[in-house]
Amino acid sequence: MTGVVVDGRTLSYDDVVAVAHHGAHIVLADEVLPRLARDRAVVDDIVDRQVPTYGLTTGLGTRASFALPRDELELFSVRTVRGRADAVGDPLPVPVVRAALLARANGIAGGGSGVRPEILELLVGMLDAGVHPVIPEVGSIGAADLVQMAHVGLVVIGEGSAEYGGEVLDGATALRRAGLIPAELGPKDGHVLCSASPLAAGQGALALHEAAAVLTLAQAVTALTYEGFRANTSPLDPRVLDLRPAPGQARAASELLALLEGGELGDPRNARRVQDPLSLRCAAQVHGAAYAALDFADSALAPELNGCGDNPVVLPDSGEILSSGNFHTPALALAFDTLALALTQTASISAERMRRLLDPTVSGLPANLSPYGPERSGFAPLTKTAQALVAEIRMLSVPVSTDPRHGAHAVEDDSTNAALGARRLSTLLVRLRQLLAVEAVVAAQAVDLAAPSTLGRGPEFLHRAIRKIVARLDDDRPCGVDVEAVGHDILGSDDVRGTLRARAGGAS
Known about the structure:
- The chain is mainly α.
- 56% of the residues lie in helices and 6% in strands.
- It folds into two domains: 4-196, Fumarase/aspartase (N-terminal domain) (Fumarase C, Chain B, domain 1, Orthogonal Bundle), CATH 1.10.275; 203-308 and 326-404 and 415-503, Fumarase/aspartase (Central domain) (Fumarase C, Chain A, domain 2), CATH 1.20.200.
- The longest helix has 33 residues, at 418-450.
- It is elongated.
- The mean pLDDT is 94.
């Protein structure tokens, strides 16, 4: 695979996915190491002159007024890492760890941290060699990801634990087996390893990338339901939407119409009803709001992936090191919360569309989509699964940015919980994809029973893909395995996602 260039300025979500999930090689841009050397010269000068500077020649947090002895600055860096590696819980998944390491490496590459260039080279070497620090999942309150990223720092100095080659080893052994040498920390290096918000940024990038894909899936599954329900597409008419141009709705409606192109529903006169339930009629408004929330999250995350979140920051042109609040991420935390709420709305109408398909008084189809009548359960029990998924998604949408937690007494008196917001989004998206798989299985049966003469290009592709692995429901059978198969093999397939994105009018 072509290498991902790390320059501190241009890292994309696709880059994060390539490194986190596919092991893409990392290439440092030519200007990065000279940039870091210039920054480091400022650090060395400040140390030589013993200028009072937070976290460099003074202590951290409540100890910021205490001057550090010159001969203890290197040891202070090591103590900074050791003393903050206090996270607990299950280890974060390897892709999340890789995303966080990449986000930190890119943040350092852009300049401002003052770290020794060798530290960045080691972080990149760990990624390329597959040395993955064991980072427990709980520890960040969003005032930088200090406690969790300290576990990365431990491995950098040959301590802590790391996964390498499928085996969890002590940090020194993992580095040695990978042909890497632990770093000797200089002044400020320990603080840099723990600083910024790379967990929130890295896992957030993975989550936003997945959210965009899941929204395309939601559009495609909705189009399949439209075909089974024989929905009225007049609410998608641009002339209607232009009368109240709510954020995102024109895009969502355009994609739905593109997916339905080639079928009969492009002409509203082929609809079964004059007016449909809101879960169908207002899909463009709900999905459009989710697109708008995704855009908001994108604008908040981009500076975290490609900016300096350190405190203090080095300004090489003036030779200064200044105090900074760039580690604080309220906009990012708010954006994650907003997206979680928007995706919950998307989930709610998915479950409702599925229920409408099962109701013969609304859909005009056999009760519970069973061809055999009331002595069969059909898909009725799946409504419980759908509602259970909605309940969990709704729980996961509770805002976390409004629940600040305090760090160092009288100093760190605000926080954002951004890393928690990103981690929550990852779980929510798994549940939403499972819910869409429920709707897709039911909608495919509805299409079979409605038997339209032609389907739109999106529903036709999705229906065919489903029927390759899941047979239509005849007599009652366990349907959970069908939902799991559709969720994993179809909705989780990069090829399927790419085709649906193209048929919705996006880039393949």
